Amino acid sequence: MATRKNLTTNNHLRHMESMKSLPSGAGKIPELNAVILGESLASEEHDLVFPSHDFSKQALVTSPQKYLEMYKRSIEDPAGFWSDIASQFYWKKKWSQQVYSENLDVTKGNIKIEWFKSGITNICYNCLDKIIESGNGDKVALHWEGNEPDVDDSLTYKQLLEKVCQLANFLKQNGVKKGDTVIIYLPMLMELPITMLACARIGAVHSVVFAGYSSESLFQRIMDCKPKIVVTCNAVKRGKKVLNLKDIVDAALLESSQNGVSVDSCLTYENESAMKKEDTKWQKGRDIWWQDVVPKCSTTCDVEWVDAEDPLFLLYTSGSTGKPKGVLHTTGGYMIYTATTFKYAFDYKDSDIYWCTADCGWITGHSYVTYGPLLNGATVILYEGVPNYPDSGRCWEIVDKYKVTIFYTAPTLVRSLMRDGNEYVTRYSRKSLRVLGSVGEPINPSAWRWFFNVVGDSRCPISDTWWQTETGGFMITPLPGAFPQKPGSATFPFFGVQPVIVDEKGKEIEGECSGYLCVKNSWPGAFRTLYGDHERYETTYFKPFPGYYFSGDGCSRDKNGYHWLTGRVDDVINVSGHRIGTAEVESALVSHPQCAEAAVVGVEHEVKGQGIYAFVTLVEGVPYSEDLRKSLVNVVRTQIGAFAAPDRIHWAPSLPKTRSGKIMRRILRKIASRQLDELGDISTLADPSVVDQLIELADS
Q: According to the lineage, what is the superkingdom (predicted)?
C-alpha cells in the first residue's frame, strides 16, 4: 500500500473540530442566523441554513456526526472504505490485494494513480444489465424532452440496453475494437448517452465534443486522438436557431484528412425536427445514416470485460497554452466514485426523478447525466433545447411535467432566470422538488438565496458542488440533511477527499485562511494522465506544489471550516461553467488579418460568472470601427465556438509590458474591472504611459 502523507497528524480532520460546535438543530450561533428549511427565508450572507428534522431523518447521512464518522473512516482506511463500496458493483474478477497505488510527489518519480488494478469489470454492464437483473428493467431510464414543448420520448432500462447493444454491434462490424477511440459530436438526444454506453460496452474509448464547438476545435481533437469513427447528427434546433452540425463535422474531417488523419466512417443520425435527410450534405463511402443501419443490428451484444485501469473516455478541456488537454479517465475508480458521489450528494432514493441541465459534452454530463445516475438505477431527464425557450418558465414546466425531485444546474442559469423575474417560476407548482444542485463555478450568495427561496420554496437543500473535469466527481459538497449550509459555500470535503489550502511556498495553512486549493492523496475518480502528454500532466497539476494535486483554484476556509471557492488563479476563464483558456481566445483573435496583438482577461459577469474581456491592438493604420469589432468577435465564434465570444473588445494602441516583453495581465484585469485605484506599481513597465491610454479608451 502506498504510504499516505501526514496520517499521523490530525490535520486531515481539521474541519471536524470546527463542526463539533455546530448544533444538530436550529439554535442561536454567535454572528450567525439559523434558518430551518421550510420555515423561513434565507436572507443574510451569514445565515446557517439547517435541514428540517423530517428531511434529515430520511436522509442517507442523517447528521454531522454520521458524516464525520464516515469521513474519518474514508481518510484513515481508504482501502477498506472504497473496497466495501466497490463490492456492491459487478466485477468479473476482483482486484488485487493492493486496492490503490499512488505517487503525487514529482520529486519522488513519475506521478501515478491506480485504483482496483487487475479488477475486471464493465461500466455499461453495471449501468444497464445489473439494474435489469435486479428486477428494474421496466423502470424508465431516460425521459427525453425535445426542443419543442410537445415533443418527447422515453426508454426503460431494457429498451436502453437493446439500443446500446445495436449500436455496439454496428461499431464492432465497422472495425471498432477495445482501446479504439470514437468521437461523438451530438446534441442532447438519447443517442448521445446511447453512444457513450455502446463504446463502454465494447471497451472503446469515447471522446464527446460539445456540439457547439467550431470545426477548428473539432479538427484539433480529431488530430490528437485519431478516432476510428465520428458519430454526429445532421442538425439540431436550440430554441429557434438551427445549428448545422454535419457541416461543422465535414469541415473538420476535410481539414484533418489534409493533415494526415483520415476517418473512415461518419455515422449520422437524422434529427428530422431540425433538418431533413435530403437537405443534408453527403459524402458517399464515408457517411452512413444511423437509421439505415443501427436498427438492423442485433439487440444483444457481449460485454468486453476490461481492467479497472483501462481507459473509459477522453474529454478535452481548455489549457492555458491554447492547446486543449485530453483528460483521460479510466474505468473502475471512476465508476465507483461517480456512483457514490451521485448517491450521497443528492441523497438519492429509488423514487427520485433526476434532471441535470448539463450537456454530455462537458464532464458534468458524463458523471451526472450518464454514468452516476444510471449506475444507481435512476430515472434521468435529457433536454435538447435551451432553458428560456419558448419562455423563461420552460425549466419549471419540465419539472412539473415529469415530477422532477432533484434539479442540478449551473449558477449561470440561476442568475439568468433570476434576472427574468419570479413570475416565470411561481406560475408552476414545483412541489415535487426536494433537492437542488449547483455546478460549474462558485454560486454567489444572492443567487444561492434566490434559488433556495424562490425555486425551492425555502425547503430544498442545495448541493453546491465543487469539482473539475480532472477530478471525475464531486470533491467538496454539501450532503443534504447532514449538516447546515452557508449560502455560497461548497461546505466540506466528500468522503476520501483531503483538501488543503497552501501558500505560495506550498506550505499548508491551518484555521481561517485563503490560498491555493490543493488535494492531498489520491481518490478513485482522479484522472490518470493527459492523453499522449504525461509530462504536461505532471507539470500542470503536480509540479506547482510537489506532493499535492493543484486544482488551479483559490479557496478560503472560514472559522467553522466551511470552504469558499474564489475562482481560477491561472489564465483560464470560467464562462457559464465552461473553462476557456485565455491563450485559446487570444490566438483566435490574432488570426484576424487586422489584429496585431491581443490579451484576454476574465471579468465578473452578472449572468455568466465570468465574461471574456479582450484588449486588441490593431495592425498599424487600421482604424477602430464597430464592423471590425463584430468581425473580431466572429473570428472567435468560428474558431472556438459562440460560448467563447468576447463580451467586450477594448481597443489598445499597445499593451502594458515589462521590459522583458511579458504582458502585465494584473494591470489589464484592474482596467477591465474599472478598479483604477488598485493598479499598483506601474514603474516596472517598459512604457507606463500605455496605462493612461488604455484608461482613456475604456469606454470608447
A: Eukaryota
Q: Are strands 34-36 and 48-50 parallel, antiparallel or unpaired?
A: parallel
**How far is Cα 346 from Cα 222, in angstroms, rounded to an integer?**
36
Strands (E) in 55-162, as ranges, are 100-103, 112-115, 120-121, 140-145, 152-156
Catalytic residue among 570, 571, 647, 692: 570
pLDDT tier for residue 40 given thresholds of 50, 70 and 90 = very low
Contact present, 577 and 440 (Cβ < 8 Å): yes
> Could you give the CA distance from residue 157 to residue 170 in angstroms, rounded to a whole number?
20
User: Strand locations in 341-419, DSSP E?
Assistant: 353-356, 379-383, 406-409
Grid cell locating 650: 477594448
- Known catalytic residue at 570: yes
Q: Which three cell numbers stand for residue 569?
A: 488563479
Q: Longest Cα pair distance anywhere in the chain, in angstroms?
A: 73
Nearest Cα residue to 525 out of 638, 380, 366: 366
Instruction: Confirm if 345 and 102 have CB atoms less than 8 A apart.
Output: no
pLDDT digits (tens, 9 = 90+) for 648-679: 999 999 889 865 556 788 899 999 999 998 88
What is this structure's pTM?
0.86
pLDDT tens readout for residues 392-414: 999 999 999 999 999 999 887 88
Question: What counts of helices (H) and strands (E) characterise the chain?
Answer: 23, 32
C-alpha to C-alpha distance for 367 and 359, rounded to whole angstroms: 11
Say which residues have a Cβ less than 8 Å from residue 583's Cβ, sequence separation at least 6. Answer: 319, 320, 321, 322, 571
Q: What average pLDDT does the chain have?
A: 90
Ordered alpha helix ranges (H), 403-474: 411-420, 423-426, 445-450
Q: Return the amino acid letter for 405.
A: T
Question: 3-class SS at 166?
Answer: helix
The residue to which cell 458519430 is assigned: 231
Q: What dihedral do alpha carbons 573, 574, 579, 583 form, nearest 10°?
A: -10
Among 625, 597, 545, 558, residue whose Cα is nearest residue 105: 545
> 253 CB contacts (<8 Å, ≥6 apart)?
222, 230, 262, 263, 266, 286
List the one residue out of 231, 367, 226 whose CA is nearest residue 294. Answer: 231
**Which sign does the torsion angle of CA 478, 447, 611, 241 carry?**
positive
Q: What pLDDT is recorded for position 15?
A: 61
What count of other Cβ atoms lies within 10 Å of the Cβ of residue 698?
Answer: 13
Write out the three cell numbers for 431. Answer: 412541489
